[in-house]
Amino acid sequence: MDTLRSTLQPITHNLPAPVRNAATSLLGDVCYKRLILDIDPTDTPCLKLAVSKGLGIGIIGASSIVKIPQILKLVKSHSAEGISFLSYLLETASYLISLAYNVRQGFPFSTFGETALIAAQNVVIAVLVLQYGGKSAAAGAFVAGLAAAGYALFNGNVVDGKLLSYLQAGAGVLGVASKAPQIWTVWQQGGTGQLSAFAVFNYLAGSLSRIFTTLQEVDDKLILYGFIAGFLLNAVLAAQMVYYWNSPASAKHASELGKRPEKIAMGSTAGDSRTSARTKTPTTRRRG
Q1: Are the CB atoms for 221 and 172 separated by under 8 Å?
Q2: Which of 107, 183, 191, 249 can bridge 266 by disulfide, Cβ–Cβ 3.0-4.6 Å?
Q3: CA–CA distance, 17 with 37 (Å, rounded to integer)
Q4: Could you tell me which residues come within 8 angstroms of residue 134 by beta carbon, excluding any fewer than 6 positions away?
């Protein structure tokens, strides 16, 4: 270790000012000295903080594209089959409240930055779902309502700190509840439709990572419990994605739900779906 330290210290002691300033702002003066200048990986608290910061930055980076595959699938197919608007409505409301709460509490951006990026992508998806469902007017009302709610939540003269704390507690419930309609939709249709596997599994990994970063950097049980509950339901949705990976709904399952078989088959065109439902052969289309 001494050999490695003597090799690296000439580099770590002469980092460019922008890099040094960024690392200091992330780790703090004490941990920057212990980990970067002294190169002491035995400092467990500082090491955990560094891992937490790294995960947080990684989550924020991934969140900038996590819903892009879902958006592309919707645009390409011109169909919102298998997508629950209620799920996105609840999740977006939850994220908007959490974003306002974190900003007004002054928590580190690395612990919540993905909230803003995912919320923006959720708005696009929700609008597309309404648009392809023939509800353009509702899409406009949805965006206008979010804008009004955002103004109120970020304005301390409209929503004070105490009320915002209550809303944050409710946001945790909303975040958990937002998964239920999507889970129900997947089960009801017997397949995942246009649901993106990339988004689902990234959500699962992200929510697990957020439990760790929250434990390390944010002393707020409301946020922690929300991430734990969200991870559990994300796990259910991921399990559904695996279970229905290449399996369209069978005619038997469709009849149990009172649905026509041709509307249940997933992963093909309308004509192919009818054929798939009659023959009960699984599609080879992969989720993405």
Answers
A1: no
A2: 191
A3: 14
A4: none
Question: What is the token pair recorded at 157?
Answer: 């003269």
pLDDT at 87: 87
Query: Please, are residues 192 and 265 in contact by the beta-carbon 8 Å criterion?
Result: no
- Quote the tokens at residue 240: 């559904």
Calpha distance 276→86 (Å, rounded): 29
3-state secondary structure of 20: helix
Whether 67 and 125 have beta carbons less than 8 Å apart is answered as yes
What is the rounded CA–CA span in Å between residue 40 and residue 29? 14
Q: Report the pLDDT value the prediction gives residue 247, as an integer from 0 to 100.
A: 59
> What are the tens digits of pLDDT across the range 2-30?
787 788 878 888 888 888 888 888 888 88
Over residues 157-194, the pLDDT tens digits come to 999 989 998 998 888 788 778 888 888 888 887 777 77
CA distance 98 to 104: 10
Asked if residues 97 and 171 have their Cβ atoms less than 8 Å apart, the reply is: yes
CA distance 168 to 138: 26
Which band of pLDDT confidence, cut at 50, 70 and 90, is reported for residue 205? confident
The helix/strand/coil state of 265 is coil
CA-wise closest residue to 101 among 87, 81, 84, 115: 115
Q: Which two tokens stand for residue 123?
A: 């708005």
Cα first-last separation, the chain: 44
Measured CA distances, 67 to 88, 106, 203, 229 (Å): 12, 27, 10, 21
Q: Which residue has the tokens 């779902």?
A: 129
Question: Does residue 217 contact residue 52 with C-beta atoms inside 8 Å?
Answer: yes
Reported pTM:
0.64
Mean pLDDT value across residues 117-140:
92
What are the tokens at 131?
A: 């648009």
